[in-house]
Design a protein that fits this description.
flat; mainly alpha; single chain; 70 residues
Length: 70
């Protein structure tokens, strides 16, 4: 009978651990400063625009030499 207690209590133990870590993070860890101490040295990364994809042939078109040559 005691063997059934361990698997049944595992989700509750994990939930208690997560809630305890959340409380610890909120109350024990130091809070970050409201404003950054220094401005970033370089500009933030902005990804380049993606390349335009070639137009795909329609599914109902037969594969002819002009469609294959695209």
């Amino acid at each position: 009978m005691y063997v059934l207690i361990v698997p049944a209590s595992v989700p509750f133990v994990l939930l208690a651990a997560v809630m305890g870590l959340s409380w610890w993070e909120d109350h024990v860890l130091p809070t970050p400063p409201a404003e950054p101490l220094e401005a970033p040295a370089e500009a933030p990364f902005t990804p380049a625009a993606p390349n335009q994809l070639a137009e795909l042939p329609r599914a109902d078109t037969a594969l002819t030499s002009e469609v294959v040559g695209r």
